C-alpha cells in the first residue's frame, strides 16, 4: 500500500512539473499595439507563424498607415488547441485571442491563419471566427488565402499540408460567397505565387523581403475593403497538375476531359497517370495550347476549371 501511494504521489508531482514547464500562453510577447496613425482607421490582425514573421523581423511596414492591434504566434491553430511552438510555449488559438481582446479589433479583422489547422477542422474554424466577429460587432473580416505554390510545409502533427491548404482556399471562397460581403478573401496565394524569394524554404514562412510584401499587400487590400470594394477572387489560384499527382484536383481534371469528349482509362479515379497525360496532350493540341501533358493555368482555363483572373498590382520589389 505504501508503495502504491508513493507511486501515485510521484505521478502527481511529475504532472505538476509538466504543467509548470508548459505555459499556456505568452500574451506579452505576441500582442503588438500601434496607435500612432492619428485619425487613420483602426484594424486588427491575427495570425500563425506565417504572419508572425512581421513580429520576428520587427517590420510592420505599410501596416503603420493604420492604428492596429496585432497578434501572431508560432504553431497557432484557429480553433483547436495549438501545437507546441518554436518560441517554447503553446499559443492561444485565434479564437481565444479574439475573445481576450474583444472590442479592440477595429473596422477590419485580418486573419492569416490555417497552416496548422487539421484539414477537416478548418471549415469549422472559419465559421467560428466569423460568428465571433459578428458577435463582437466587427464590421468586416478579411482572410488571406493560404499559399500553395512550392509549399513543402506540413504542420508538426502532419495533419495539414499543401493539399489541405488548397481545400481550405476553396472553402474560404465558397463560404465568403454566402456571407454577402462580410467575409472578404484577399488573394495572397495568387499574389505571391511567382515570388519564391518572399518565403523561406518551406513556401509558407516569410523572408525579410516577404515581410515587406505582405505588409504592403495587407495594407492595400484593407484599404480596398474599407472603401467598400470586394477583393475576393473568383477562383483559387491554379497549381499545375501532372503525372504522379492525386486528389480532388486530378478528379476535376479528369471529369473536365470526359465532359470534353476525351477518354481517360479508369475514369475519374483521382490518379494522374500516363492515360490522363495523353488525354491532356490531345486536348491541348486541339485547343492550340502548348502540348505538355500537364494542366497548367492556361489549360485549366481552357478546360473550364477556372476563370481567367487578373491579380492585384505587384509592388516594385516583385522579382519578375
Protein traits:
single chain, 320 residues, alpha/beta, 11 helices
Explain this structure to me?
The chain has 320 residues and is an alpha/beta fold. It has two domains: 21-226, Rossmann fold, CATH 3.40.50.1110; 248-302, no CATH class. The protein contains eleven helices and six strands. It has helices at residues 2-21, 27-30, 49-57, 94-100, 122-136, 162-177, 188-191, 208-226, 248-259, 274-287, 297-302, and strands spanning 31-34, 42-47, 67-72, 108-112, 140-144, 183-186. The chain has a six-stranded mixed β-sheet, sandwiched between helices. Strand 5 (140-144), helix 6 (162-177) and strand 6 (183-186) form a beta-alpha-beta unit. Helix 5 (122-136) crosses helix 6. It is elongated and about 60 Å long. Residues 7-23 and 309-320 have low confidence and may be disordered.
CATH architecture classification of the largest domain: 3-Layer(aba) Sandwich
State the total count of DSSP E strands.
6
By CATH's scheme, which homologous superfamily of the largest domain applies?
A: SGNH hydrolase
CATH topology of the largest domain: Rossmann fold
How is the biggest beta sheet arranged?
6 strands, mixed
Structural class: alpha/beta
Per DSSP, what share of the residues sits in E-state strands of 2 or more residues? 5-15%
**Count, helices:** 11
Share of residues in helices: 25-40%
Shape: elongated
Give the low-confidence spans.
7-23, 309-320
Amino acid at each position: 500500500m505504501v508503495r502504491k501511494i508513493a507511486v501515485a504521489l510521484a505521478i502527481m508531482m511529475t504532472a505538476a512539473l509538466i504543467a509548470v514547464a508548459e505555459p499556456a500562453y505568452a500574451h506579452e510577447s505576441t500582442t503588438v499595439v500601434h496607435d500612432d496613425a492619428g485619425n487613420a482607421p483602426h484594424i486588427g490582425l491575427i495570425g500563425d507563424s506565417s504572419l508572425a514573421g512581421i513580429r520576428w523581423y520587427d517590420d510592420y511596414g505599410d501596416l503603420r498607415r493604420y492604428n492596429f492591434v496585432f497578434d501572431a504566434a508560432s504553431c497557432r491553430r484557429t480553433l483547436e488547441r495549438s501545437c507546441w511552438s518554436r518560441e517554447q510555449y503553446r499559443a492561444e488559438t485565434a479564437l481565444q485571442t479574439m475573445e481576450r481582446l474583444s472590442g479592440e479589433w477595429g473596422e477590419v479583422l485580418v486573419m492569416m491563419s490555417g497552416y496548422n489547422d487539421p484539414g477537416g477542422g478548418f471549415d469549422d474554424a472559419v465559421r467560428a471566427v466569423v460568428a465571433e466577429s459578428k458577435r463582437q460587432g466587427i464590421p468586416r473580416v478579411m482572410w488571406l488565402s493560404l499559399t500553395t505554390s512550392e509549399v513543402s510545409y506540413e504542420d508538426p502533427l502532419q495533419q495539414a499540408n499543401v493539399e489541405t491548404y488548397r481545400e481550405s482556399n476553396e472553402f474560404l471562397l465558397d463560404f465568403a460567397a454566402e456571407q454577402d460581403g462580410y467575409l472578404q478573401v484577399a488573394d495572397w496565394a495568387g499574389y505571391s505565387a511567382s515570388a519564391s524569394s518572399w518565403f523561406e524554404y518551406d513556401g509558407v514562412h516569410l523572408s525579410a523581403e516577404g515581410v515587406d510584401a505582405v505588409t504592403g499587400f495587407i495594407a492595400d487590400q484593407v484599404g480596398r475593403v474599407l472603401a467598400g470594394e470586394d477583393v475576393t477572387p473568383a477562383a483559387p489560384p491554379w497549381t499545375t497538375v501532372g503525372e504522379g499527382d492525386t486528389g480532388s484536383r486530378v478528379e476535376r481534371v479528369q471529369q473536365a476531359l470526359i465532359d470534353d469528349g476525351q477518354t481517360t482509362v479508369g475514369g475519374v479515379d483521382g490518379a494522374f497517370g500516363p492515360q490522363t497525360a495523353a488525354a491532356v496532350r490531345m486536348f491541348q493540341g486541339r485547343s492550340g495550347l502548348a502540348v505538355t501533358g500537364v494542366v497548367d493555368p492556361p489549360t485549366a482555363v481552357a478546360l473550364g476549371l477556372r476563370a481567367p483572373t487578373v491579380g492585384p498590382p505587384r509592388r516594385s520589389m516583385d522579382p519578375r
